[in-house]
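I need you to check the entry underneath: sequence plus fold tokens. Let me know what the token row says about the fold.

>
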Amino acid sequence: MSTGTAVYGMLAGVCVAIGVLFSGLAIRRRQIPSIELFVGVLGLVGAGGVLSTLQLHSSDNAAEYAATLKGAFSLWGIAGWVAILWVVGFRANIGFPRIPLAFTGGAIIVLAINASSPGGLIVDEITGLRDVYLFGEAFVVHEPNRSSLQWVLLSYALASTSYVVVAMTLRRERLMWGSDPLFLGLIVALAAVLYDFLVDEGWVQTPYMAPFGVVAVALGLAVEHAQELTKSERRLAQQSAVLENLVVSRTQTLRATHDDLVGQLRLQNKNALELAQLSEMFVSLSSVSVTDDDIDKALTDVVGRLAVIVQAGQAHLTWASPSAPGGGNVVDVQWAAPRLAAETPGGEQLHEITKVLTGGEDSTGSLTIRRHGSQPFSDQERRLVGLMAEYLGSFVQRLQLETRLVNSAVDHERERIARDLHDSLSQTLYAAAFNAEALSLTVTTDSDLAAESAVKIRIMVLSALAEIRTLLFELQPTETSLAELIKTLCMSLEEIYGMRIQLSIVGDGPPVPPRPKLAMYRIGQEALNNAFRHSGAEGIHVTLGIDDHGARITVSDDGVGFDVDAISTGHGLRNIRERAGEVGASIDITSSTASGTALSATWLRVPAEPTLDLTRLPRMGQIA
């Protein structure tokens, strides 16, 4: 192999290496368009141009030379120039991608004209070949022969070259006229094109050098990209060093902060444990009621825990018992640590905290905490004992208030039972006694009247029995459901009055609590008694509905009706409204002479109050 052919082969290999390397880099980074992709494409196009030039110069006859010149040589040459236009547009960012796209369209037109014309763009007819030499090796080129189609190629070359010159000039200004390998490569490419013009004119006796210009541009791009990568690596190295120093500094700061936090956490662990114990005490006291039998035991446990928290040996609590009239019975709760229960310390200094239990403006007792030893109570421990004393004062006041409410409820219930006995049972028994006396007078003289009196006596006695069962239910609470109670009531009244009651029970909700259950039962009883006694109805209908929202009972009849506004202050309706008000139920009454009377009572469940939120309790450092 001669030297000239070897040079062509090495240049093609360099171009292929550049094309494969940068194309693979662009694919790996997934950046399209990118300078790596343009460098790779230009390298592969340059390899094709070098190989087609070698094939052109190696042709041994005019026909093969013309075919190569018209085909591969023209295709790769114009493709290389188009690739240069895209690279310049991308790097200089002048009219990119519109102008390079327009020149690409022009190149396609040039190639189409070249392919369709008989003699091609460059020669109409090859009249002959001449020999030229490269490193002593003979190559062939064609003799110059002008063609009118060359003006199309010349116009395209001038326009595209002008774009390259303007774009690179503006780019050079932005680069402050520093080192620019791409600019140098373009100069070499333009020089190669001008050199080939001299070859065509026969002024220079060497092969065509245009593909070598494409190679020069590809090398220039590769060098420029390598420089950019080097600068980027330097910047990254500098940034890495800065970050490393920053990490070292931050690590030292974090280590110091960590040590400080560890110290604070160790200091706060004791406070957190004390806060948890204090919260547990609050929860245990919140569940204590005035009806509990172990109030003293609960208070002893609480003051004992408080003494353990403040590291005391003794705790003494006095408070006015709410069970005594006026709260005059003083209860004394004492707690001592197991060590002090076995032996009394002697010769040690006694430290004491005494706080008055206050609820509002009245004193309700006192709390005393004692500790033996040389270490006095801290301010934080004193604040903790003061906070507990305030809470115990509120607790005692709550118990006293609950006691008064319970006593008031008992008195109110006694008055209500006495009123019920007077209004219903006593009058019923008196009427039964009166009819019994009338029966004794008429049993021998008027048998029909005697029989009527006996029936009345029977009805009155059964009514009295129903009232007694109701009172027993109120005095001895049962687990019987509201539905069962209404069923029993309807059966009793059917037996007493001898009239059928249509009962409808709908829904399957949760059980009704005792107080609203009793109120709804009494309201239904009063409404049914009114319907039987005053409406003159032939049919009575009772509907009971129980669901998740509450309970509703409706008593309707087809009787004569009444004026609701005129009789709204009657004793029976007043009792119904009072019972409804006690449990927060609502009453709805409609009545007319045409449709009878309908009374509805609706009770709604009240959502359960939220449990104690321990997260809202004061922190140890916030105790004032």
User: Anything to note?
Assistant: The chain is about 60% helix and 15% strand. Residues 120-126, 323-328, 340-344, 609-624 have pLDDT under 50 and may be disordered. The chain has three domains: 3-227, 277-395, 492-624. The longest helix spans residues 210-286.
